[in-house]
Structures
1.
Amino acid sequence: MNPVKPGKTPRKPWIVGVSGASGTPYAASVLRALLDAGESVDLVVSRASRLTLLDETGISFRDAHWQQDLREWLARGADGKPDTFDVDLTGDRVRYWSAGDLAAGPSSGSYPVKGMLIVPASTACVAGVALGLSKDLLQRSASVTLKERRKLVVAVRETPLDGRTLRHLVTLDDAGATVVPASPAFYAGATHIQDLVDFVAGRVLDAADVGHDLYRRWRGDLGGARATG
């Protein structure tokens, strides 16, 4: 039986996986921009990322209260200031799946999604996806995304990178993923930490072909950002 009512567009979300690497503001910026673009999101937060989120924001992400905790997280600016952004989580715009739920929708290739964004991606996450370990829902969803030939964007956040991680990243590139280092640029005229975070988030969305206005794009005019900043 088709659960979609006649005339209604079937839900086809982006999976956003948040691993344990430092950089939870990058994930928040990506999530806000996806929602602002009218996209639906299936969210997977790894166990390790909960510790990082608690350390970087003071927010304890709980399965039973995920909407409350997600709203508080997305409303917070990269500088830690609460209630910086307005966040609308009404309706079915965001679905949350526990990282331990290997029977969740995104664990199957028949579950309709547009693709997956892993932001930030730790080196452990990169290794797990490259080796096909599927040890949790985040890694399983990434493996499914690759086998179904959907877009997979991996925003790796680590420095320095050793040979093993570089080889894993090459493996992901060979498999069809797009590797986006969480490396902000300065030509866009950043004046605040949020600008640097939004640049990286914007490049992640560029790789996924999702429209946004998170940063000033290069136009070929030297000093243009200073002139308009």
2.
Amino acid sequence: MAITDTDVNSKIQEEKVEEKVRENEEQAILRVENLHTSFFTDSGEVRAVNGVSFNLPKGKVLGVVGESGSGKSVTAYSIMQILADTGRVVEGKILYKGENILDYSEKKMNSFRGEKCSIIFQDPMTSLNPTFTIGWQLREAIQLHTDYKTKEEANKRAVELLKMVGITEPERRMKQYPFEYSGGMRQRVMIAMALACEPDILIADEQTTALDVTIQAQILELMKELQKEMGMAIILVTHDLGVIASMCDEIIVMYGGRVCERGTADDIFYRPCHEYTKGLLRSIPDVKNMKEKLVPIGGSPINMLSLPKGCAFCPRCEKALKVCLENAPDEMEMPDGHYASCWLNVKKEYEEEINAENQKTAGKEHA
């Protein structure tokens, strides 16, 4: 059987993809492979995360975006192993420098949290204890996870951290309680606490949601500066596309516990290939459409207790195909190199191949 140019090109393309995957895996400080996380309730199994995979290279920023209930925060909590009592990882691997943290003992996991990986939660007011001073809470984290064991050493380190995150008069602020801080200052304290151990990975879970726009910009700028200074990798979890536009090296769009699309900010914003991503972008105000009504995504968020057999977004998609009802699409590489999980892309590629073949046949007949 003769080998055609198409076969050769296909083989070369496969080898390039495999080489790219190997490079990413070698560089990654954290690898999540086929992660499935469920919550077991009286009403049934809530499959919050369904087969999520990604690589986080050292010193890079990964954005995870999606609406409420998409599984983005549960993915972060699965990495930190701080799920509710009813939740557990039922399948997959979470590899930190090649070691599966799901196999860690409780003692080793406690060491991983804080020293290797830290998290900034959504609402700093509920994350800080109102009955203890800021200094006491910072000191506790420092003494628990670092070599600064005495009170004097921990206090000195706490003051350094507060200065690092831009809080003025840190010595006086150490003696104050959380209610004496503004929302932005409380979030700065949470960042300082997360950075106390100089972790390799920082997870920021909706870290600017409770803040006004001006303070949001300040917190994001602070995180960018600290990331460059300390060289840590960041997972930025948010529902706000505007937040991740200028900060992330790679963006993952999630819906129904699955990855819809992944790529750079330019890929996601200018060349979206999944209907959910396009819907998110249409619902964002833009200077070009100020006089037009925003177009919301139709339908209701998916019920995680009864996920559809096929594509999770199918019930809300205006362009859904019959195959979308029965089969979940695999990730497919787009012409520009980013990935999307949508049957419409498969259909488009098939139609382009047919058209190219028809044109080739017509050219031969004309000749």
